[in-house]
Write a structure and sequence with these properties.
Number of domains: 2
Strand order of the largest sheet: 1-10-9-6-3-4
Order of helices and strands: HHHHHHHHHHHEEEEEEEEEE
Helix content: 25-40%
Structural class: alpha+beta
Shape: globular
Amino acid sequence: MIFYSRYKKFRLENKISLEDIQRRTKIDLISLKAIEAGKFSEISNVYVRLFFKAYLKEIGIDIDEGIEELDEFLNQKNPKKKVRVKKNKKEDNDKSLKFVDIINTDTVFNPNILIGSVIFIILILLSFALNNSSTISDTDKENELRISKSDIESIYAIRTQEILSEETFSFPITIRFKSNNENYIEYSDTESGKEYFIFEDKNTAQSNSFSEIWNGDNKTFLIANTVDFELILYSEDTFSDLSDSIVNDFPVKVDLIADPLSVSITKYIPKKR
């Protein structure tokens, strides 16, 4: 039985409903049903592993084991296969041969053996090249993680919106943000913008934490995933931690407004189909 069907059976046997999981995790039922049907392509790549981990935790399955099965299913890993070498009887019988009997110049320089060896080496090189070509590049990963404003408009609806006053601050203000999950962040104004990509396999202190200086122009953060995400504003004598205010299972837009000095937080959820 394939792993997602096995997990569904385990959930049903333990009388855990998808509605209970949805209520505790805030993951929509459509995504939960997609997980149990193995239709992971119907879930945004940013959230697949995150939702699957939460699902495994709720039903009581070992998370590491489940993620390994998911990765194999999605061909995100190329596990090394163990090659079992079967000895033939002739090899065992030939152990009694003397070394001088084994080293035979006719055998070593046999054209058929040389040609076979060359073909074998070529096949190994081709296999190596094909494996390398199948590796997902950083550009491919970036395209999978990226969420555009048009995606927000077409896929998501506004869940909540609130404005927080930050009038105690004075410019310049340092904005520090950090993501402990695979993520995409766009930081922009009316004229230009920056993109930040955080990959799970490169998630280190140097690659998942960033800072920007806000000098007074209106700015916008578009964050794909704010679970386990830190967003902190601070100036010379003022500090504000917005991390709890922006938590959402889906994208969040944070508008930094210069006049009056405030922060607008818009949380999104998928549109109902």
